[in-house]
Amino acid sequence: MDARLRRVNKEISDCKNDKTSNITLELVDNSPFHLKGSFPGPEGTPYEGGNFEVDITIPDAYPFQPVKMKFITKVYHPNISSASGAICLDILKDAWSPVLTLKSTLISLQSLLCSPEPNDPQDAEVAKHYTTSKASFDETAAYWTQIYAGGPGPKASLKGDNIKDKDNKKGKGGMMDEIAMAGLEKAHVEQFESLGFPKAKVIDVLKRLNYRGANVSSISEDRIVEELLK
Amino acid sequence: MSDYEVSDDEYYYDDEEMMDGTQDDDEYDEMDMDDDYNDYNDDFKVDTVPKKKSYEIDYESLSQADVEELMKQDVEHIVGITGVEECAAAILLRHSSWNKERLIEKYMDNPTGLLVEAGVTVPEQPEPTTSGSRAHSVSASSPSTKRSTRSSSKILSSFVPSSRNSSSKVSSSTTGSSSTRTSSTLMKRLSPDPSPTNSNEPFTCPICFDDSTDLKPMALDCGHMSCSGCWQAYITSKIRDEAEHCIRCMAEGCQIVSPDSFVKKVLTSCGDSSMMGVDVEANKIAWSRFQELLARNFVASVPSLKFCPYPSCTNTVKCTDAALKSSLTTIVPTVSCGARGIPGLEKSSGEESGNNNKNSKSKGTSGGSGTSSSILANKEHKFCFGCPIEADHRPVVCAIAKMWLKKCEDDSETANWIKSNTKECSQCQSTIEKNGGCNHMTCKKCKHEFCWVCMGPWSEHGTQWYSCNRYDEKAGVDARDAQSKSRASLERYLHYYNRWANHEQSAKLSVDLYAKTEKKMEDMQLTSELTWIEVQFMKKAVEEVEKCRMTLKWTYSMAYYLAPGNQKELFEDNQRDLEKAVEDLSELLEGPIEPEDIPNLRQKVTDKTVYVQKRNEIVLDDTAKGFHEGRWKWNVPVEGFEDDEAGFDA
Ligand SMILES: [Zn+2]
Ligand SMILES: [Zn+2]
Ligand SMILES: [Zn+2]
Ligand SMILES: [Zn+2]
Ligand SMILES: [Zn+2]
Ligand SMILES: [Zn+2]
């Protein structure tokens, strides 16, 4: 039998038999070389309570070349592209070792959610958010988890100005709050909206300028208006 | 040369046909074809003495075997000083980018540290070893002493990446924590049984999960076992997919590098076809690719060596004169690896083909002439030792060529319209397409004769007065206001660019010209008494025109940056004379051939070819000497040149 197929089949069955890890693997299009993995968000993180799905492609030279993985579930994380789900993780590149398995790689992704590495970001805007105001970042990440991964939403302890709005729209069926999705304060967005700028544009500019936490006092309103006028 | 038959005596020349009167009386035979042919080409050479020209440099072509010999000498040097084994010395050298002095210094300072850092030996935490003593035991073949320790937990804990931390992208805590968590089971599998043969427990490969009894477990010094099939697949993939010569152990975080002997053992042991489907052919390819990668790594580390950039060529050129970057202001290091042809383009039978020259160690100087029936498929592997810009950008130095191309790129949009292959007749406005290299255009409709470059009437380009190459700097000086100044500067640029691009395009069109010429040569043989070898003058002329157009092309980049003055004027005089000669010859080649006129044409073309060659020689020689003497002054600061000349106009 083809060695790659044997190995992947063994990995899939090992994973099925392992009831303790909460990692699942299932075939996509009935091919053992295109899989969908999933794992629960780690406890004590903004991802807790969510279920994260990962698209897995097994290359021809597997396991001698690294498996290809990207998030299907949208994740708010410095090392994961908020748009494409692409992941920046060394073991998926040059630090790959043939002894790593699909399961161990998924566990590595799970622990990547525990310990972001903002100095080597995949998503620069998210990384900026993470480094400047961790509390606000956590809140946004939890909100994304709620919207996309079925999480419970930001915890009471992380309560911010717009928590009331979120409570109203709790659950997957609810309307998405664009301001919370962007990790911004409702009051800030409304302030510039009232000057006559469209909401989407205000969100875009404030996000780009990282108008959060301590940054709020260092960015002048003129600067923002200037950007809005561009 | 396989597609024609000639009897031996047709390869003789009559004395009267020899341009310089010399005659080679050796009888032609199949093997001497090339020498004979070169003699024939020499007839066209202006210099009969084969001495090095001012625009040529000394270099040496090395085959991969020659390079391997150089590597071996370095390895032996390190073995002699440090006492480590050859394979270890090779890994140390690669780790130190073949800097022997630094390697020895580091080794003397801390041998164990260096051996661990380079991936030769496994780091061992306890018992601080006395320096030197362990180094001698470094070996890929005697892991027996280490086997007893390798399954211990202290080794396993050392798998958490340490030395790669600096380069590793994501926090080691991430990988580390996950690996310690996840790999505990794997590591148990990976940490091999100290003596698999004695054990009752059968070996299960931790990579492919195979547990067949006929598996052949293999490991590096670190002892991380996996089956030979997995090693083969892994090493092949590293070499083929990643072009990697530094192949580390498969265990996660293990830094041990496979010695060459191990790679060879894995790729050449082809007895067991039970597991990963041993592909003997693929292994062979991988092994030879591995050796090439090692040679490339070495060549890339030595400034006086450069790998031939032609596809699938494995030759190297050694050029000591061009090893230092500072030398590139005085020389243009055009070199050739000694091989010819590009795979896929080669003519099928009988010809010496490019890559088969691997074992020939040839001394050479640049500027050899193409000598095969298939002109393009058998081009020599010419390249610039100093830059990747163009194979032969003589007479200008790399910095000027680079600046000029950058400028053309930046200004490409303004200049785009000139690039186009069509123009309008200045008299009747009908569209005219250029399809040959000649600049003398005749409108099909109104028969107006004009110059493609300046669009002026061709009559003004007659014998005495040819000013198509020179930009009237005065017009630029006269510019008063900023607007006309910037227009003048654009016009100035376009003047040079136009001519530069025209020669480039003409040289490209010479592919068509080659084809047409070959057809004409065939016709000539049918309509005249001339033999195949006697109609070679046509091909030779086409080659010369192409060569000179490349020279001319680059002279315009040079003239653009030359500071105004006597030197520039002399340069442009030489440029003009060459251009005029080239256009004359080019026109002659593209004209129709009347059978009764062939002897006359032959004389004319041959004479003009010699003249063109002489003009080209003068341009190349004088420019090269100018660089050597530091005679050329620029109107802008040029990288590497002292900008002592004041008054650059921005
Ligand atoms: Zn195996
Ligand atoms: Zn190892
Ligand atoms: Zn070559
Ligand atoms: Zn160059
Ligand atoms: Zn016309
Ligand atoms: Zn002209």
Automatic annotation (TrEMBL), chain A:
UniProt-annotated catalytic positions: 88
GO molecular function: ATP binding; ubiquitin conjugating enzyme activity
Entry keywords, A to Z: ATP-binding, Nucleotide-binding, Transferase, Ubl conjugation pathway
UniProt similarity note: Belongs to the ubiquitin-conjugating enzyme family.
Name of the protein: Ubiquitin-conjugating enzyme E2 1
PROSITE patterns: UBC_1 (PS00183), UBC_2 (PS50127)
Uppermost EC category: transferase
Automatic annotation (TrEMBL), chain B:
EC number in record: 2.3.2.31
Record key words, sorted: Metal-binding, Repeat, Transferase, Ubl conjugation pathway, Zinc, Zinc-finger
Region (Disordered): 1-44, 123-199, 346-372
Keyword Zinc: yes
One Pfam family it belongs to: IBR_1
Listed SMART domains: IBR (SM00647), RING (SM00184)
Reaction catalyzed: [E2 ubiquitin-conjugating enzyme]-S-ubiquitinyl-L-cysteine + [acceptor protein]-L-lysine = [E2 ubiquitin-conjugating enzyme]-L-cysteine + [acceptor protein]-N(6)-ubiquitinyl-L-lysine
Highest taxon listed in the record's lineage: Eukaryota
GO molecular function: ubiquitin protein ligase activity; zinc ion binding
Bias (Low complexity) ranges: 131-185, 351-364
GO biological process, one term: protein ubiquitination
SUPFAM superfamilies recorded: RING/U-box
Compositionally biased intervals (Acidic residues): 1-41
Residue ranges of every copy of the RING-type domain listed in the record: 201-472, 205-249
Record's protein name: RBR-type E3 ubiquitin transferase
